[in-house]
Write a structure and sequence with these properties.
The protein is mainly beta. It contains six helices and 51 strands. It has a single domain, classed as TonB-dependent receptor, beta-barrel domain (Maltoporin, Chain A). The two termini are about 50 Å apart.
Amino acid sequence: MYKNKQSKLTNSVRLAIAMGALTSISVPVVVAQEVGETEIIEVTGIRGSQKANINAKRFSDAIVDAITAEDIGKFPDKNVAETLARVPGITIDRDFGEGQGVTIRGVQPDQNLTLVNGQAVGTGQWFVLSDATRNFNFEILASEMIAGLEVYKSSQADIDEGALGGTVILKTRKPFDLEANSGQVSVEGQYGDIADALDPTLSGLYSWKNEDETFGILFSGSYQERTVERETNEDFGWFGPSIPRIDPLIEAPVGADRKGAIPWGMGSALFKQDRERIGFDVTAQWAPTDNFDMSVHYLSSTLKADNVNSNLIGIPFRGIAYMGEDTNTGTVSADNVVDYLDVVGVPQRPAWARFLAYDNIYRDGSEMSTEIVDIEGHYLMGDGKLHFQLGTTTGEGENRDFFTEFWADASDPRVAFDFYNPGGDAPYIDFTTSSPWLANPTDEMWLGGIFDQLNATEDKENYVQLDYAYSVEWGAVSEIKAGVKRRDRSFSQSRYRTDLANLDPVGAGSLGPASAFWTGDMINVSHDNTNAVAASYFFPDKSSMYNALYNAAECTDGDTTLCRRSDVFLSESSFEIEEDITALYAMATFGGEGFRGNVGLRYVETDSTSNGFDLNTGQAVSFDGGYNEWLPSINVSYDLTDDVLLRMAASRVLTRPAPFQLAPAVNLTPETSSGSAGNPQLDPLTANQFEVGAEWYFSDASVAAITVFKKDINDFIFTKTVAREINGQQINQLSTPENGGSTTIDGVEMQIQHVFDNGFGGYANYTYTDVADAEVEEAVAVTDDDGNIVGATLASRFVSFPNTSKDSFNIGVFYETDLYSARLNYNYRSEYFIAQAEIGDQYRDEQSQLDAQLSWNVTESITLKAEALNLTDEIWENYYVRSTDGKRLGGTQSANGRRFFIGASMKF
């Protein structure tokens, strides 16, 4: 009796999943076909993908959300991260206008896991200020290559460890999934309103298999160009009047001279980038017998990302020392915040008081790439199934930085700016006073900072995995699965720099005045979407500055005049992290009358070595680390009624620190007195997590669900900002990772989705996440009555968990017929903590975005499509909360603009 019921349950689950899979690869109309005496109706398009998503969620043992492509090459969004943002509990970062990292249930991107077909994917970064992390950068992957994805929010023993928030599994297509000689071709144009440029995208897919369906091969490719422009009112950190500081270019403390809290610097910046992304995906599949199949998968994607960032920077921090003089007038609010300051150069100003700089950073040749070679096979052995998988993945990043910096003389009366800070939380600088010469420079500014830098990173993993699943009849247990996996992973970074010794910022000891490096081009920043005012300033000639650097004579011992140091290895920024990971697991799948699930145990052993160089001596150093963990998990589902499902899950998880966090290295930006540092002594983060939920499936494409979750976290990793002297350079804002104490994440997810019979449908989800501040102990200096440090003591303070928005939600509506479809989607996330700074905590303000899509099925094979992203023209903004009184202090604002797409696709 029990065996028959179990068999019926298994068959129904398989049928439902099969139906879901069919909808993800079918045409955008309703078709029928006969299989034996059974007529199968395939509902496709948006409605079909919604049904497939619900089937995957409903019949999974774990707590899972899924998204499938509406058709071949038709993933819902231009970027997979943008699609993930629709899933309950998921928020994303859009620093350059496109989804990059994925936060799951309040856990930041580098503490989640992204897998391709169940395996790790090596990734790199094109941006030199992006430290090496474990999170996948979704900018690099064309959405056309993805057939679907699953988000595992609860843990399962047979899935790789490493995720605290959740695991995203991306799935590519295989040739046996499609009809022989089928495929798709699409062409599209993209327009960005800030860049004011039209860029092309091309993609295609072709799948073939022989008549016996024993061998097949699938090819897909994608090519995209994108012109990116971003306008920023940039902040370089705040300092308060009660905090004594030493400026890196000032020889004496200036804290006593300051009259109120003020930013070190504010910049009017324009970022411009030309992107080119090329991707290939090839899969060969072979099934010589009914009992054996094997596939070989190759994926390659490269994003070339030439870019230049131009930033005119006023430094009010240096001007405040002279506030109250006739030349530097200003006002301070009642709560000790400077709300206005007029800074003007005067003859008596010392050299260290330079207050106006102009940076142009050229990054031609920057790119990132990822490559996967994967072999996977299945062999049926009686009542068991053997699965094997082995392969390698490599992610590479190459960041090229040709940095140039002009300085104005602090004693030049032609140089001036006005600092405004209305309300104390909206600072900006008006350069209008200097506009005449900024449009036609002579000797008001001097080329006094320059270097040419190459930063190369590599993320590589080799893996081999063996799993065996054995069907049993042990009461409620229907399957026993066990496996072993071995991974060798390495992360490395090497940095080389060519610069000039004995270079003065201004005057005769510099490379020359601005007039010598200007050909007449201008930079114009409208600041329509930030609180800054429009700015216009000269754009120097890159070739002239490059020649000035490389025409300088090579340095020799004892040189005291201007000379060049070529290809110097920057040991303080170079490192290699090596990890050897062995995992063993066993998992039992069970089920009975109205219930099912799995219970398992995973054992993981990690041996790691952090290789780098001593920051002071430059000598090679190495730090060994290692840990092992037992990670139990259980997932249970219970059918309360035919339509209502209850779920429970519990597990222990671990998250490894990011590669750069473990590195005995620093990434410094001395020109802004900032940088980041690693910490080889970090421990992995561990957590016990629990969730309970209910799901009501009130039609075949409709669901209402609620899930309550809790994570008890130990040794969580947070970032704090400190001041430190490194190699003789004073760095005022050095971000460093540390292990915190214990904290908890409590939350609830709610979602509803419904498709009406008249073609209308909609969905909404909301996630509430509450993170408790963690108490940590730190050494605090003890001083005597004269201010001398006489010792240290431990003091407790509370730190916040980063990247966690308390509230996030999505609302979407759509209408679809056999000919037309339209969709609107709005998502929102509330503010979240970023890092600690000396003035107080830094936050990212709330963010939202409205997107729209329209499509017309001209024929069964041809579809026209139009899309618009960020219709509300939202910006992102960072700000500070002052630790002494909780006052909000404004910071960086960036605008990426709207993007519009129009295109056509054809399937065959």
